């Protein structure tokens, strides 16, 4: 059924990437759906189906399983069953439009029966296609124009011509649902195989659905970070869950698995009540899986397993047993431990697709490593959909059965398989003998109850989901807190400041300011002496300032800072995300040293002359006054010595001493007073550089890293939603 | 007919070969390493437990090991062959956890010592009344071989009931494989339900590969299907190229079920007769011995190169890891040298200090800043190299070996080591400067710290600090400046090289600790060729 797989594909892809596009597509499905859902012709065809059913019933005893095999019906089989069926066949075949209309109607009808979400319409279309291969292609043809042509969709015609588009119901989800349940109950059984109610597709309950959606989103979010191999398993589970949901929810697919010679086929036959599967002493006996369905409508499910038509059987007709096991599809698998490798491959393939597994073990092989290590341990999470059956108890004497059963339980416990005892949920362990029929009844009962619950498929998907989540755990969660701490940010800023040399620059600025202050407020004599000194000393680095600096920032420090911060940020992350964070940091750090160079050049020194404090002129004045005192005192002394003035030693000497002592005093005072402003000036220069560097680093490195961390956080939360426990049964 | 011709030289070369095999190690977790380790252990077991003792003492009793799947009735078969319960049989799987060796009382000395199976401690049970409870619960410590004696076993034959080969208990599987390695005759037991199982067939193929004397027993066959199952099994054996292997069928009898008792003597008579014939007829016995021994010797031809190949793969992987480290450090070293030359050290703080020197910055401060900057540069180089190594190693499966990647977070200690080295360089530089200054015969000797700072600046600042050289020349003369600069430069190169070398060695140390060398490969092949020559 290529069409189904095709749908499967588009469905998955569509939901992944462009949901909005896809709803349009869904709508188109619905347009065709209710359009044709008109009860009148369906009622007219009702007798036809009745007669067809009878004819097939008549044939059953004649051709045995052969007849039942095709009960679900392909067109070919309909043709074979003669007159009445040919009518149906013709009805579907006859004119182009009605044929398509019919199939499409089933689509709508089935969707209604399921009262499911919008997506189920599509599933139902698939189910309809399964009912009749021939019109299926046409359904698709029909659907496409309907989807492309919005005019038909808006057409408010509501007459009873089934061919015209009646699209009152494509405007809202709830309205659509209501009418479908109301309308479509009657034609729901259209064109089914005889007596087969259209199987309602499976519906998962809310938690499971949201977990599946979460996983889908998670896969979408992490596609860029993780390689496809890691995500393959999750993708497969999503695909299988979607494929299973599209198929019958009334049926439960149960596989009989076990080692060669454990009596799988024997048990299969015992359950079916007829020798369907070949049994024998030749090992391995069963080479290909055989399906047996207790009720109709299971064809699509069996198709999914890839079991060809010739290997599908019906159990012997037995009303009681049929009622008990209604909805069961039993699969007899080949062995998993024989030398025939292709058997194992088949088992592995089908075990991924079935809803539940009955592990058949025997007293000889129940402790085989192959069974436990290859299958039971990895599938321990699926305990709820597992039965472990100890077959061939007839070979065990007396109480040995209980002994072996206890040992088996112990082994299962060691495997981590939860056992369904004392009302817990878990695997059911039974002992029976398919040969003597001992205990088969019990299994039948348990199985009947299990099938009636109809929860196996959802539980299986939930268990798959758990397993996938557990497998993905290392790439999503590490159990450690991840994130960029404030400390790490500060350290990064400090390292960048080191790289631009903020401390050095600040200190240099401070000292330069102080030097200037000292020069301004120093005694003139000192300044004179300094000037003299300086003339003899050739200039050093100060003169280099004029040169353009190509590498003012320490590259190695920037590199190291980026490395450290990315290491800190990625510390608690799983490897792929850690790598992403590191890449983001490295990408951001490109060009960072150059930017810092530029910054350092701009922000290095405050523009213009350094600010002068208000007391400076006063100090200069005081210094000048002191000098003046000295000069005045000196002149006065000279005047006295030369006799120009009256000899009065006291005052001029006092003046001179005051000037001589006061000059350095003023200078010292100024130096003390300049300390504070100089410090402030230096700190200001340092702070400016520091902030500029930190800002640059934040914009280029920290922000991308934080964004990457945020993305991880998002994914981590999504993963948390996937792992949330609670199996869905809907 | 093959006969066994044993010369002392052969034994010598064999024990030399054994030592080579024992010395082979496969520590790197490569794809083939677990397989190679298993092969080595198996070969060693075969050499120690079988070939060497057998060649030394060809007259020792024939050892027939009964092996097979769990629940195939090995213990019941051994009990029936002996005629009394010597080995535990039961319905719980796996039943036999302690191997039991049964021999004639007079042969006991062959097995009580450590001649064969030296790894297993012996548990000697002299005699027990048949009515005794043989099996105390919880008595079995690991790796014990119970030796039983029974008169019903003829001299020159010993039976060993091995644990199963495929049960859940891993120890059992390992022990069974080891025991089978020690056998002269491999008795493979399978059942009607199991004869197509994959695991026993692996064992049969192994027997064929080693050309061991093999006999298969199809046990627990329901009466009704004896002929059909037997035919099927025969067909499978023929298809596998084992058509000529003696085949015995033991029917499933109520007695055989679940260890209740012994099978009637008639059920196991053909097998018993065959075994007796092998043990007692000198010709058959010699043939049996020679076949298994020669088969094992022949198998060495294929197995030794396999081991050698695995050893070579180990060495190649180790070489790849080593070269990744060397490449990373070499390229980082080159980059570091380039950066030193271009004056990358004189950046940031150091540059700011140099600009402020000498007005607003003292020589000591300048020197401090330079030293710190140099340490940062070195640390950056080392961590970059480590990062490159990690990157390359991440792609190598072999790097998963314990201790290679899970280093202690040694970044801090690397910083510490580099800091030490750089400070030592500074001290030595200051001593050099002191020397230079002391040699000057000027009245006003320049401050040695200033000299050191100027030399360091000139050395680390690249082209930008030519002026520092000029100033230095002014202070201690052009000649002295040049000499000092040269000496300081050499000192710097030496220290930088030493730091990088030490870090590289630290990185390589765990790899060296694994002791992966090219020699084992050559030695294994050489031992094999010597052996071939001696045969």
From TrEMBL, chain A:
Q: Where is the composition biased (Acidic residues)?
A: 156-170
GO CC terms: cytosol
**Key words of the record:** Membrane, Transmembrane, Transmembrane helix
Could you tell me the Gene Ontology terms of the biological process aspect for this record?
ribosomal small subunit assembly
* UniProt-listed InterPro entries: GTP-bd (IPR006073), GTPase_Era-like (IPR005662), P-loop_NTPase (IPR027417)
CDD domains tied to this protein: YfjP
Transmembrane feature ranges: 615-637, 649-670
Instruction: State the name under which the record lists this protein.
Output: G domain-containing protein
Q: Which organism is it from?
A: Streptomyces fuscichromogenes
From TrEMBL, chain B:
A Pfam family recorded for this sequence: Dynamin_N
| Keywords of this entry | ATP-binding, Nucleotide-binding
Q: Where is the signal peptide?
A: none
- Record's protein name: ATP-binding protein
A GO cellular component term found in this entry reads: cytosol
Q: Which GO terms describe its molecular function?
A: ATP binding; GTP binding; ribosomal small subunit binding; rRNA binding
List, alphabetically, the CDD domains matched: Ras_like_GTPase
């Amino acid at each position: 059924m290529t069409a189904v797989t095709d749908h499967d594909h588009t469905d998955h892809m569509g939901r992944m990437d462009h949901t909005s596009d896809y709803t349009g597509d869904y709508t188109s499905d619905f347009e065709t759906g209710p359009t044709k859902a008109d009860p009148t012709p369906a009622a007219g065809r009702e007798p036809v189906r009745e007669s067809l059913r009878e004819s097939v019933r008549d044939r059953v005893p004649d051709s045995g399983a052969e007849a039942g095999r095709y009960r679900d019906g392909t067109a070919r089989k309909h043709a074979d069953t003669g007159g009445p069926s040919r009518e149906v066949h013709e009805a579907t075949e006859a004119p182009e439009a009605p044929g398509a209309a019919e199939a499409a109607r089933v689509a709508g009808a089935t969707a209604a029966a399921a009262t499911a979400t919008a997506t189920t319409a599509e599933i139902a279309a698939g189910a309809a296609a399964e009912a009749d291969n021939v019109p299926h292609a046409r359904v698709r043809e029909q659907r496409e124009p309907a989807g492309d042509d919005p005019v038909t969709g808006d057409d408010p015609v509501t007459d009873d011509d089934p061919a015209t588009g009646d699209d009152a119901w494509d405007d809202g989800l709830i309205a659509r649902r209501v009418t479908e349940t109301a309308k479509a109950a009657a034609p729901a059984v259209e064109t089914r195989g005889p007596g087969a109610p259209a199987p309602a597709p499976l519906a998962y309950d809310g938690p499971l659905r949201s977990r599946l959606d979460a996983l889908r989103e998670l896969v979408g979010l992490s596609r860029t970070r993780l390689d496809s191999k890691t995500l393959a398993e999750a993708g497969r589970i999503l695909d299988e869950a979607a494929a299973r949901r599209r198929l019958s929810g009334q049926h439960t697919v149960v596989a009989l698995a076990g080692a060669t010679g454990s009596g799988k086929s024997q048990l299969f036959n015992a359950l079916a009540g007829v020798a369907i599967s070949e049994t024998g002493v030749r090992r391995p006996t069963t080479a290909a899986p055989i399906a047996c369905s207790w009720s109709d409508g299971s064809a699509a499910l069996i198709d999914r397993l890839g079991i060809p038509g010739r290997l599908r059987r019906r159990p012997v007709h037995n009303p009681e047993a049929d009622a008990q096991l209604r909805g069961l599809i039993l699969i007899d698998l080949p062995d998993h431990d024989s030398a025939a490798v292709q058997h194992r491959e088949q088992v592995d393939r089908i075990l991924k697709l079935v809803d539940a597994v009955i592990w058949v073990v025997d007293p000889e092989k129940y402790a085989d490593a192959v069974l436990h290590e290859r299958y039971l341990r990895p599938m321990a999470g699926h305990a709820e959909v597992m039965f472990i059956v100890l077959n061939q108890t007839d070979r065990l004497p007396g109480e040995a059965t209980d002994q072996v059963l206890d040992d088996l339980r112990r082994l299962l416990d060691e495997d981590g398989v939860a056992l369904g005892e004392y009302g817990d949920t878990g695997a059911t362990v039974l002992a029976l003998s398919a040969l003597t029929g001992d205990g088969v009844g019990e299994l039948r009962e348990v199985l009947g109850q299990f099938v009636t619950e109809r929860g196996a498929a959802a539980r299986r998907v939930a268990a798959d989901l758990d397993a996938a989540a557990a497998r993905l755990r290392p790439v999503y969660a590490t159990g450690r807190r991840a994130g960029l701490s404030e400390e790490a940010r500060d350290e990064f800023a400090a390292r960048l400041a080191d790289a631009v040399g903020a401390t050095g620059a600040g200190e240099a600025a401070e000292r330069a300011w102080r030097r200037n202050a000292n020069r301004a407020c120093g005694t003139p004599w000192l300044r004179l002496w300094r000037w003299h000194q300086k003339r003899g000393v050739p200039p050093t680095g100060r003169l280099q300032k004029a040169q353009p600096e190509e590498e003012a920032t320490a590259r190695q420090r920037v590199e190291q800072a980026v490395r450290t911060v990315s290491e800190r940020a990625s510390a608690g992350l799983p490897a792929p995300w850690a790598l992403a964070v590191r890449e983001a940091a490295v990408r951001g750090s490109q060009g960072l040293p150059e930017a810092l160079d530029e910054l350092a050049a701009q922000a290095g020194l405050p523009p213009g002359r350094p600010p002068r404090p208000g007391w400076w002129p006063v100090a200069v004045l005081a210094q000048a006054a002191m000098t003046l005192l000295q000069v005045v005192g000196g002149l006065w002394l000279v005047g006295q010595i030369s006799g120009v003035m009256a000899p009065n030693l006291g005052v001029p000497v006092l003046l001179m001493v005051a000037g001589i002592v006061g000059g350095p005093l003023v200078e010292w005072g100024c130096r003390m007073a300049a300390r504070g402003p100089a410090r402030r000036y230096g700190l200001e220069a340092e702070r400016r550089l520091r902030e500029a560097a930190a800002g640059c680093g934040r914009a280029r490195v920290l922000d991308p890293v934080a964004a990457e961390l945020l993305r991880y956080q998002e994914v981590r939360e999504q993963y948390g939603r996937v792992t949330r426990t609670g199996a869905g049964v809907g | 007919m093959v006969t066994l011709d044993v010369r002392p030289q052969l034994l010598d070369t064999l024990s030399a070969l054994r030592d080579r095999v024992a010395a082979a190690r496969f520590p790197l977790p490569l794809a083939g390493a677990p397989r190679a380790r298993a092969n080595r252990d198996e070969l060693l077991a075969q050499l120690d437990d079988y070939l060497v003792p057998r060649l030394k003492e060809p007259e020792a009793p024939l050892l027939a090991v009964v092996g097979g799947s769990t629940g195939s009735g090995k213990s019941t078969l051994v009990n029936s062959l002996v005629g009394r319960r010597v080995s535990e049989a039961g319905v719980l799987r796996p039943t036999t956890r302690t191997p039991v060796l049964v021999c004639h009382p007079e042969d006991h000395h062959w097995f009580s010592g450590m001649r064969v199976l030296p790894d297993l401690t012996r548990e000697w049970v002299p005699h027990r009344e048949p009515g005794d409870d043989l099996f105390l619960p919880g008595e079995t410590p690991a790796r014990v071989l119970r030796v039983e004696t029974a008169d019903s076993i003829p001299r020159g034959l010993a039976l060993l009931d091995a644990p199963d080969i495929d049960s859940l208990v891993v120890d059992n599987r390992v022990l069974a494989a080891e025991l089978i390695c020690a056998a002269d005759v491999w008795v493979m037991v399978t059942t009607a339900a199991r004869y197509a199982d994959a695991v026993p067939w692996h064992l049969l193929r192994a027997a064929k590969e080693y050309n061991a004397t093999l006999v298969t027993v199809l046990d627990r066959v329901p009466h009704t299907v004896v002929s059909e199952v037997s035919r099927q099994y025969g067909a499978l054996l023929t298809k596998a190229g084992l058509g000529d292997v003696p085949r015995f069928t033991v029917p499933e009898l109520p007695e055989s079920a679940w260890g209740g008792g012994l099978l009637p003597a008639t059920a196991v008579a053909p097998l018993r007769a065959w075994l007796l014939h092998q043990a007692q007829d000198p010709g058959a016995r010699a043939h049996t011995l020679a076949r298994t021994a020669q088969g094992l010797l022949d198998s060495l031809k294929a197995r030794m190169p396999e081991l050698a190949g695995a050893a070579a793969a180990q060495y190649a992987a180790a070489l790849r890891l080593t070269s990744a480290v060397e490449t990373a450090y070499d390229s980082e070293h080159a980059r570091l040298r380039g950066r030193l030359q271009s004056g990358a050290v004189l950046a940031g703080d150091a540059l700011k200090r140099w600009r402020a020197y000498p007005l607003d910055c003292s020589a000591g401060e300048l020197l401090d800043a330079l030293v710190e900057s140099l340490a940062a540069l070195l640390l950056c180089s080392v961590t970059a190299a480590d990062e490159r190594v990690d990157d390359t190693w991440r792609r190598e499966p072999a790097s998963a070996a314990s201790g290679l990647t899970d280093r202690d977070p040694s970044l801090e200690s690397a910083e510490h080591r580099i800091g030490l080295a750089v400070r030592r360089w500074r001290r030595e530089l200051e001593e050099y400067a002191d020397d230079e200054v002391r040699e000057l015969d000027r009245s006003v000797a320049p401050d040695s710290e200033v000299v050191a700072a100027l030399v360091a600046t000139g050395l680390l600042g690249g082209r930008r600090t030519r002026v520092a050289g000029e100033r230095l020349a002014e202070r201690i003369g052009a000649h002295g400046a040049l000499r000092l600069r040269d000496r300081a430069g050499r000192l710097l190169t030496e220290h930088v090289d030493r730091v990088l070398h030490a870090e590289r060695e630290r990185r390589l140390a765990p790899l060296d600790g694994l002791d992966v060398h090219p020699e084992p490969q050559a030695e294994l092949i050489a031992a094999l060729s010597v052996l071939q020559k001696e045969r």
